[in-house]
């Protein structure tokens, strides 16, 4: 299964369809963009971020455009908004396992965990 993500909009109780996400590989303070994508109707990517064959051990970052998503839904956000981009830094220790990185988000809070 490789690496996957899923975003749920907890303010509206639905998948975060249309949210922009970027995946980076990281090395200390340096981050290298691997890909940008937009989440589908189910708040997921259409394909794994990495499949089993391409997943490698190392450190990564997922950056979610939270403010852009909520603005596109017509949510009135204060300026400056509380959450803009949510960045999750995580490590892949076992490339032979599936890593799922979900995000539960509202304009004012977020949580994550290693899913299955």
What does this 3D model show about the protein?
Keywords: Hydrolase, Purine metabolism. Its EC number is 3.5.2.17. With 116 residues, this protein is mainly β. Helices cover 6% and strands 45% of the residues. It contains one helix and eight strands. It has one helix at residues 66-72, and strands at 3-9, 14-15, 20-27, 30-38, 58-65, 85-92, 99-105, 110-112. Strands 2-1-7-8 form a four-stranded mixed sheet, with no helix packed on it. A four-stranded antiparallel sheet has the order 4-3-5-6. The longest helix has 7 residues, at 66-72. The chain is globular and about 40 Å long. The N and C termini lie close together (10 Å). The mean pLDDT is 97.
Widest β-sheet, arrangement of strands: 2-1-7-8
Total beta strands: 8
Helical amount: under 10%
Determine the structural class based on helices, strands and strand pairing: mainly beta
Low-confidence runs of at least 5 consecutive residues: none
Query: Into which percentage range does the β-strand content fall?
Result: 35-45%
Question: Strand-and-helix sequence, N→C?
Answer: EEEEEHEEE
Question: Quick one: overall form?
Answer: globular
Q: What structural keywords apply?
A:
EC 3.5.2.17, mainly beta, single chain, four-stranded mixed beta sheet, hydrolase, four-stranded antiparallel beta sheet, 5-hydroxyisourate hydrolase, hydroxyisourate hydrolase activity
Topology:
Layout: E1 3-9, E2 14-15, E3 20-27, E4 30-38, E5 58-65, H1 66-72, E6 85-92, E7 99-105, E8 110-112
Parallel strand pairs: 1-7
Antiparallel strand pairs: 1-2, 3-4, 3-5, 5-6, 7-8
EC number: 3.5.2.17
InterPro entries: Hydroxyisourate_hydrolase (IPR014306), Thyroxine_BS (IPR023418), Transthyretin/HIU_hydrolase (IPR000895), Transthyretin/HIU_hydrolase_d (IPR023416), Transthyretin/HIU_hydrolase_sf (IPR036817), Transthyretin_CS (IPR023419)
Subunit structure: Homotetramer.
């Amino acid at each position: 299964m490789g690496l996957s993500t899923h975003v749920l909009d907890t303010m509206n109780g639905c998948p975060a369809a249309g949210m922009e996400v970027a995946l980076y590989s990281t090395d200390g303070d340096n981050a290298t963009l691997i890909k940008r994508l937009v989440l589908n109707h189910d708040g997921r990517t259409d394909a794994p971020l990495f499949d089993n064959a391409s997943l490698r051990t190392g450190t990564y970052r997922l950056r979610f455009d939270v403010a852009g998503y909520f603005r596109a839904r017509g949510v009135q956000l204060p300026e400056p908004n509380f959450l803009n981009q949510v960045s999750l830094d995580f490590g892949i220790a076992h490339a032979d396992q599936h890593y799922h990185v979900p995000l539960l988000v509202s304009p004012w809070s977020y949580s994550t965990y290693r899913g299955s």
